[in-house]
Specification:
The chain has about 375 residues and is mainly beta. Helices cover about 10% and strands about 40% of the residues. A hairpin with a 3-residue loop joins strand 3 and strand 4.
Length: about 375
């Protein structure tokens, strides 16, 4: 039997449960992929495997033997790692309880699977602290045919006074490749947006973040790809493609741990952003969306675009209007005859709409350059 080493993370439709050496294993499958979750005898929720479907359930029994998860820091493959316990790697959540204590040890309580449609399944896994009346629900909404997952958390407590959330990630993923990890991301500035960059991840933490508040994506957008083993091409390679569905400050940490596995934590940037959570109140994080492909960057991007058109964009699969923007043709230097000729020419190509860009405003102080008339 051959186990294809791919990615270990929590997602997808929960399926049959069986026991291996007193540890509950939950198998999950989507159209192309399979996932295995583990609840340990101590009720810790761990991620074991995410990759190609295996032939049958019996093969999942061997998965735990294929990987190395434990080090001096404890079990590094926690599904949602906490601060203030044996874990000394980067946490997904950190809190200050009403009495000032900062410890947190989340234990598995139960899970529920809700079939929303033929394509969409919501898996909710409930975790609770062993001492404090503090709860976290991990949500994984999967889209079967697209192999896309949206992940977010709901945080709640029933303590007598307010609790301060110091960190509150949407997702804590765990990836394994048996080799290296290559990160594709983007950076830029005004007029130099979305400049691609690829780098090999080394041990330690690589952070993609924004603290800008407004225009949060100006320097660094929250979209990225991680290739496993070697840099992926358009049509070849194992790729995880992710993005945070959030327009404000964000933080994505990618940490290669001592076992050469990759821990990925994504969510709202907690920099200078402690949140006071009142008792019996839900704190819902934004969704982190991701897709896994074993056929390169092209399949990952096409599947995610198909998912967005189907589920996120109004009339996304309907006819799209074609737009002409005059900016690169004229910049600030235009007048009515010049624009009329531009519209007349492009009409024969089937253009539906015309957008007049920068420079149309300003009378006393005309907008004829980028530092005047704004």
């Amino acid at each position: 039997m051959t186990i294809i080493k791919r990615i270990s993370l929590v997602a997808l439709l929960l399926a049959p449960v069986f026991t291996i050496k007193a540890q509950t294993i939950v198998a999950a499958e989507s159209k192309q992929n399979a996932l295995v979750l583990q609840v340990t005898p101590k009720k810790q929720l761990n991620a074991l495997y995410f990759g190609n479907k295996l032939a049958n359930e019996s093969e999942y029994k061997a998965i735990a033997k294929q990987y190395h998860y434990v080090s001096s820091t404890g079990e590094a493959n926690q599904a949602y790692s906490t601060a203030g316990n044996i874990n000394i790697l980067e946490p997904a959540i950190a809190v200050t309880h009403a009495d000032g204590n900062r410890s947190l040890a989340l234990k598995y309580v139960d899970h529920k699977t809700t079939k929303i449609s033929d394509d969409i399944t919501l898996v909710s896994i409930n975790l609770r602290d062993s001492v404090y009346n503090f709860e976290v629900t991990l949500n994984y909404q999967t889209y079967f045919n697209e192999n896309v997952t949206e992940q977010w958390t709901v945080i709640k407590h029933h303590e007598k006074k307010d609790v301060v959330l110091n960190k509150y990630a949407s997702a804590n993923l765990y990836l394994q490749s048996g080799g290296d990890y290559w990160l594709n991301h983007y950076h830029g500035e005004w007029a130099q947006e979305m400049k691609p960059e690829e780098e090999k991840l080394s041990h330690g933490i690589k952070t993609l973040d924004s603290k800008l508040g407004t225009r949060a994506d100006l320097f660094q957008p929250p979209v990225f790809m991680v290739s496993l083993n070697k840099p992926a091409t358009e049509d070849e390679g194992d790729v995880l493609y992710g993005n945070l569905e959030w327009s404000g400050n964000f933080k994505i940490d990618l940490e290669v741990d001592p076992n050469n596995n990759l821990r990925l934590i994504a969510g709202i940037n907690n920099y200078n952003a402690d949140y006071v959570l009142k008792p019996n109140t839900d704190f819902v994080t934004p969704k982190f969306v991701y897709i896994l492909s074993n056929k390169g960057k092209g399949e990952a991007s096409r599947n995610l675009q198909s998912w967005a058109r189907k589920y996120k964009i109004a009339d996304g699969n309907g006819p799209r209007l074609t737009l002409l923007n005059n900016w690169e043709s004229t910049y600030f230097d235009f007048n009515e005859p010049k624009l009329a000729e531009l519209i007349k020419t492009t009409k024969t190509l089937g253009v539906d709409m015309f957008l007049l860009d920068d420079g149309w405003f300003g009378n006393k102080y005309p907008r004829d350059k980028d530092n005047a008339g704004l």
